[in-house]
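Human: Can I borrow your eye for a moment on a structure tokenisation matter? Separate attempts, laid side by side, tell us more than any discussion would. Could you pick a protein and write out its sequence and tokenised fold? No explanation is needed for now; the record alone will do.

Assistant:
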Amino acid sequence: MGLTRCEVRIDSADAFPQDDQWLFPVERADPKPALLVHADSDMASPLYVRTALESSGGTAFTLESLATKSGGECQCVRNTLL
């Protein structure tokens, strides 16, 4: 299985350009749960993130989505996207 190098980049014009890029490895194994926390009014982000994760064909994550004010329960996850 091995490791996959991943990168998250955001386009922002803030005073901290050092935090606009995040490099991290993911061990290729059975998909791991990941939680996407998003605003109640933001219904597009779960679709965009799920599509991006699934675009590689063999996704490393199963995505669970939780709105910030929903108060819903989620399964224990080690990977959280805010």
The mean pLDDT is 78.
